[in-house]
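Fig. S4 source data, part A: sequence.
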Amino acid sequence: MKGLTAAQADDVRKALHTAERRSGLRFGVFIGEPVGGRRHFAERLHAALGEEADRAVVIFIDLAGRGLEIVTGEDARRRLSDSACRLTAMSMATAFSVGDLIGGLLYGIAALGEQATARR
């Protein structure tokens, strides 16, 4: 994962696995620059999951553009409201703003996984 050390990427993979196992949803993270608009790019990443897209959550982090997008599929949206995603994104952005990329990312994955599990 771009922008992360090998140990940090491993921590993110473990967090994704835990969130998936607990919630039953598919979680994905992409760190990089968008091709085109940030939201549109994040939506294309999400759609690329094909049949899994309905129950998927994609977190896209644009380090250069200092942006963050969370995209949920139809099934995932039933358990993760827009306001829950917005609050999680704000907490993640706060961590990112003080230079804590990995902390913000791990928090976001865990928070979304917990919220989705609670509404399972």
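Fig. S4 source data, part B ends here. Residues 6-115 form a domain with the Diaminopimelate Epimerase; Chain A, domain 1 fold (CATH 3.10.310.50).
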